[in-house]
Design brief:
The complex is a heterodimer of chains A (152) and B (294).
Chain A: H1 4-29, H2 36-54, H3 62-75, E1 79-82, E2 100-109, H4 110-123, E3 126-134, E4 137-146
Antiparallel strand pairs in A: 1-2, 2-4, 3-4
Chain B: E1 7-10, E2 13-18, E3 21-22, E4 30-35, E5 38-43, H1 44-53, E6 59-61, H2 62-68, E7 78-82, E8 89-96, E9 99-106, E10 109-110, H3 115-120, E11 128-129, H4 147-212, H5 223-235, E12 240-246, E13 252-258, H6 263-272, E14 277-278, E15 284-290
Parallel strand pairs in B: 2-6, 7-11
Antiparallel strand pairs in B: 1-2, 3-5, 4-5, 7-8, 8-9, 9-10, 12-13, 13-15, 14-15
The chains are: A alpha+beta (152), B alpha+beta (294).
Chain lengths: 152, 294
Amino acid sequence: MISKSLLQMLTIGITTVGLTTFYVANEHANRDFPNIEKVKNMTSLINKEITKANQREDLPELSETWQSITSIASVYGVKVSALDEAKAAGMTEADIPGGTPWYGVIQGKTKNVAIAAMNIQRAVPIIYGAAALDNDLTGLSFAALGSTNTSN
Amino acid sequence: MISVNTPITIEGKQCILMRDLLGDAPNSKYTSQSQNTLQVWYEEEALRETREAHPDTPVYGFWQTLIASGLIDTKKPLQYIFTTETRDFGYYLYSNNSLLHTGSLFNDELQRLPGPAIADGISLADGEEITVDPTELKLPQFPLRTHKERIKAAAESKKKSQQRAFLSISAIVAAGLLADTGLAYQHEEHMEAFKKANTELHIAEQTLDAINKRKLVDWPNQKASLSDLYQISSLLQNSKLSGEITFLPNKSSVIEVSEIPNRNIKLNLLAEKGIEFKLPSANKTLIEWVNDDQ
């Protein structure tokens, strides 16, 4: 037969153990343990990308790219002018495959714009975005890709 | 031989065995304490006198000690024990169902037997003698105590158990806090490591971003789409062309053409060049394509 005082002690003991365990478990459950391994794996993948990217040649300076564009465009009698932002060129930053972009537009006769655009892309890294066609005139926007020579 | 009211050594400890009773208390001067499952009755006054006669010597009950030594069996109707060498004096315990009665034994005569025992004609011959060597006796857990002493002992016992309870609770709470501190420390260490790993990831991302601003993975090639535009503008000269188109990879474009001179011939030429078109009305032509340049 368990005595009354022993029963009280047991009740208090079990309650204390229960409350203490609940407190410790609850406190621990509120602690967030983010996955470090996942972050390290991501870093490792990016570092591999860096190693791979470092093996590629640097893009020409953006100013040189721009000069080449205007130079080729002039051969085909089309006009080149700068745009302020990607949106104006019908693009988003996500459309830029690399390098630092310089947005602009080639305007002129559609045939000339098309042939000039093909020749420019053969010579310098450039990506074309939106174009507005109005009878035989076209405005073709682009992002010239180059390097601004900023250090790592 | 066990003697009463004279010093005796039990389990190496000198003590006095005082006369006590089992069964019912004869009068209100008696007090009792439990021994195993039995109640032992004794006079407080007699206890005081015994203590005064033997200061600093603990006093135990005679029957209390026999019970503690495991010598009493209440299933037996009569047990007796002699307390003199001459075996002319001793004590007996009469047991009949729930009735317990203790008394003196003098010259083989059971003194003051209860009614049922007399009715049954109980005599010493019906009993079993308790023979014990004093060295085999065991001391009860507590000596005989007065009512006040028992209350005081109970209070002390309660206080001790409260202290034990308090200490136990404190120990449990301390262990819990210690565990919590340990887990919090482990969490802090983890978060430090995560912060470090995250910083490294951020640096790597920034480095890759900076490198990508100077490098190009694939040279853009939109020759096919530009060539289509060239073909369309060449073939459909003097026609009305309009459209907001895009040259971005995998996006579709539509050019609306109307007033095409020699329409059928021109459209056949377009088809030969692999340029797809639709004729929604007699005057209207829609040229559609998806930029699939690689």
